[in-house]
C-alpha cells in the first residue's frame, strides 16, 4: 500500500509543483523511483554497519551518482522548459494565483525590464537553488502524506463504525455516490472544509501515528530541567521533538490507544499545543493544509467504494511497550520505522476489495 499510495500522492504534488502530470500512477515516474532510492540511501546512513564501512560507502556513493545523473537533468529540463516558455510568451506569473509553485519561483526571474528571449538566462546559483527547493518539495510533499494515508487505512480496517459515520457525512455534504461527490468537490471545493468528522479522522490518525518530527539547535546557554536537574542543550546539541510523548499522555488524551475521532469534536476544544504532528510556530509544516485536503479528497473517493484489510498481521500476545497496546491488534507494524520521517513498517501490505 505504501508504494501505491506514494504514486498517488506524488502525482498530486508534482502537478502542484510543475502544473503537469508525471503519470506515476499509470506509466510510472522515473523521477519518483529515483527520489525514493535517494531517500533509502540517506536512511541507510543511520546504520553503523553502513556508515563506518568504506566499501559500502563507495558503493552507495556510486549508486547515488547514478541516480542523481538521471534525476537532476530531468528536473532541470522541466525548469528550463518552463522558463523559456514564460519568456517567449512574455508571461509574468501571478503572485496571488500562480499556475504552479515553479511559476512562482520563476516569477522574479522573468519579471525584469528589458528581458528578451535572447538575453534571458538563469544563473548557476539560481538553477541550483531552484533544483534544491524542487527536490525538497517533491520529497516532503509525498512522503509524510503517503505514510498518513497508510496508517489511516490500517485504523479504518478495524473500525467499521468510523467508516460508516464518515460515509454518512460524505453523503450529506457532497452527494449520494462517488461520482456525484467528485463533481461536487470540483465545482465547490470549499465544501471540503465542511467535513468535520473526516477532518477528525485525519487528526486522530496523525495523533496516533505522528509521521514528522522537528530538530532544533539551542542557543548558547540553553538548558532544560528534568527531575530537578538542569541539562545543557547548547554547543551544537540537536534537540528533537516528537509527538508521542504528548499524544499518548493520558493527561492530554484519555484512552490514548483507542482510535476515537470523536475526541476532536467534543464540547471542550483540544488546545492546539497538544497536537504536535505539524510542529508549531514559524517552522511549522508549510504543507499541512494541502496534506489535509489531499487526504479528505482521497477518503471521499475511496472509502465509499472500497474496503481495506491488512495482510499478514501477527498480533502480539501482550504489549511490547508500556505506551501502547495496539500491537496486540496489529502486531509490530504499529511501531514506525525511522527514515526521513516515521514511516510504515514493511510497506503496509493490504488487500483492497470492492464494497458491495
UniProtKB/TrEMBL annotation:
Transmembrane segments: none annotated. Its cofactor is heme. One of its GO terms (molecular function) is monooxygenase activity. It comes from the Eukaryota. Keywords: Heme, Iron, Metal-binding, Monooxygenase, Oxidoreductase. Pathway: Secondary metabolite biosynthesis. Heme binds at residue 285. Pfam families: p450. Belongs to the cytochrome P450 family. PANTHER family: CYTOCHROME P450, P450, PUTATIVE (EUROFUNG)-RELATED. This is Cytochrome P450. It comes from Fusarium oligoseptatum.
Amino acid at each position: 500500500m505504501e508504494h501505491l499510495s506514494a504514486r498517488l500522492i506524488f502525482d498530486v504534488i508534482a502537478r502542484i509543483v510543475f502544473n503537469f502530470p508525471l503519470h506515476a500512477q499509470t506509466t510510472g515516474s522515473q523521477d519518483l523511483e529515483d527520489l525514493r532510492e535517494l531517500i533509502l540511501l540517506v536512511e541507510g546512513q543511520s546504520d553503523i554497519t553502513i556508515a563506518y564501512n568504506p566499501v559500502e560507502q563507495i558503493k552507495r556513493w556510486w549508486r547515488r551518482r547514478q541516480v542523481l545523473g538521471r534525476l537532476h537533468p530531468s528536473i532541470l529540463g522541466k525548469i528550463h522548459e518552463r522558463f523559456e516558455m514564460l519568456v517567449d510568451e512574455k508571461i509574468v506569473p501571478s503572485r496571488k494565483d500562480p499556475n504552479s509553485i515553479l511559476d512562482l519561483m520563476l516569477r522574479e526571474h522573468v519579471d525584469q525590464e528589458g528581458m528578451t528571449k535572447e538575453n534571458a538566462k538563469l544563473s548557476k546559483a539560481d538553477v541550483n537553488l531552484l533544483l534544491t527547493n524542487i527536490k525538497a518539495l517533491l520529497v516532503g510533499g509525498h512522503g509524510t502524506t503517503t505514510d498518513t494515508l497508510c496508517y489511516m487505512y490500517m485504523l479504518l480496517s478495524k473500525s467499521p463504525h468510523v467508516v460508516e459515520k464518515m460515509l454518512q457525512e460524505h453523503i450529506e455534504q457532497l452527494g449520494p455516490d462517488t461520482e456525484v461527490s467528485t463533481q461536487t468537490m470540483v465545482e465547490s471545493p470549499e465544501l471540503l472544509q465542511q467535513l468535520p468528522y473526516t477532518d477528525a479522522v485525519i487528526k486522530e490518525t496523525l495523533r496516533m501515528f505522528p509521521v514528522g518530527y522537528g530538530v532544533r539547535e539551542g542557543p548558547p546557554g540553553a538548558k532544560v530541567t528534568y527531575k530537578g536537574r538542569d541539562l545543557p542543550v547548547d554547543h551544537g546539541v540537536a534537540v528533537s521533538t516528537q509527538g508521542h510523548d504528548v499524544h499518548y499522555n493520558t493527561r492530554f488524551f484519555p484512552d490514548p490507544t483507542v482510535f476515537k475521532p470523536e475526541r476532536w469534536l467534543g464540547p471542550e476544544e483540544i488546545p492546539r499545543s497538544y497536537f504536535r504532528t505539524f510542529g508549531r510556530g514559524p517552522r511549522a509544516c508549510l504543507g499541512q493544509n494541502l496534506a489535509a485536503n489531499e487526504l479528505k479528497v482521497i477518503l471521499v473517493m475511496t472509502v465509499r467504494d472500497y474496503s481495506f484489510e491488512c495482510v499478514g498481521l501477527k498480533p502480539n500476545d501482550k504489549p511490547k511497550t508500556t505506551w501502547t497496546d495496539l500491537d496486540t491488534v496489529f502486531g509490530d507494524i504499529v511501531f514506525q520505522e525511522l527514515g526521513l520521517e516515521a514511516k510504515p513498517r514493511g510497506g503496509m501490505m493490504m488487500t483492497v476489495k470492492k464494497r458491495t
